[in-house]
Sequence to fold (363 residues):
Amino acid sequence: MSRLRIGIVGCGGVTQIVHLPTLYQLSDLFEVAAICDVSRNVLAGVGEAWNIATRVTSYQELLSLDSIDAVLIANPSPYHAEISIAALRAGLHVLVEKPMCITLAENDAIIAEQKRTGKVLQVGTMRRYAPAFIEACRIVKDMRVIRLAQVHDIIGRNSLVIEPTSRVVKADDIPESITESMRQLQDRQIREAIGDAPDALKTAYGMMLGLSTHDISAMREMLGMPKRVLHATQRQGGRVLTAAFDYGDYVCLFTTGSDSIPRYDTYVQVFGDDKVLRVDYDTPFVRNLPITLTVTESADGLNNTQTVTHPGWGDAFTEEWRAFHDSVINGEPVKACPQDFRQDMLLFREMIRHMAQAASEPA
Fold:
């Protein structure tokens, strides 16, 4: 069957605002057959809004259903690895929101299970599927010289955009004991990943897993894996990060953080000898906002031309789901695969090492 039946684990904001409308738009390719959430309020509200009859509170129950072919994992990240492995073992394909996991051990376990089962597992780094980004990668491969690259991602809190633009059914019936159990699990996983680090480094690692995965994975697709991390810093309790990645002939500068301005200041930029290209992203929580490619160049050294391209209306999440369908049905390679995510985690670990070293140095 070319129409995949999807079960969703986790029906919070990103599922309600982005994934369900996207799957509805792509109803020739997907059918949402079942949903799962620990909040009965969310299950009822989402199920009624989208006419989804099968609603369960246990992911194990969802994975045992004969009515699904694949699963979207969009619940809190401490559970992503556990559910990804269970879904693969159940014979299901998986699209898992980033981060796929929190520790390298979890990553390697997912890689092993995916290889054993042969099922598709795709990580939700949707920015890499935007047509503007794909075109930028093509141009970069043809550039003779790269002098400098930049990856920049400063955003306002998502709630600043979501609250005025969307209606989200709240999970306000979850007992505090469940929330506390999740916090404790996440703390154990982060300690396993980076050791018994100060709170600022734990926050920084969380920022890397949540936001920086978009930027670092896009950087790697466009430029390749860097030779090493030259330096990395954290400030503001781990909420503002910088780094420099060594690409031999040039350096890629990385900056990321959050503030209280309701906007996205997010781009990837590459400086060549006679050409500069830049991909600009906007918030994903308002669907179909333009993702643009700007190319500035000089053919004669005298005159500048600037071209801003918006390669058609559409959404990066839509292209991400199309790619997932193509991998499941047609066997197309998955670029955002578990092995690919592991490269991000190696860079994150090296960034944390630099941050810890800088913190231990005398002022």
Remarks:
- The chain has a mean pLDDT of 96.
- The first strand starts at residue 4 and ends at 9.
- The two ends are 63 Å apart (CA to CA).
- The CA atoms of residues 126 and 317 lie 6 Å apart.
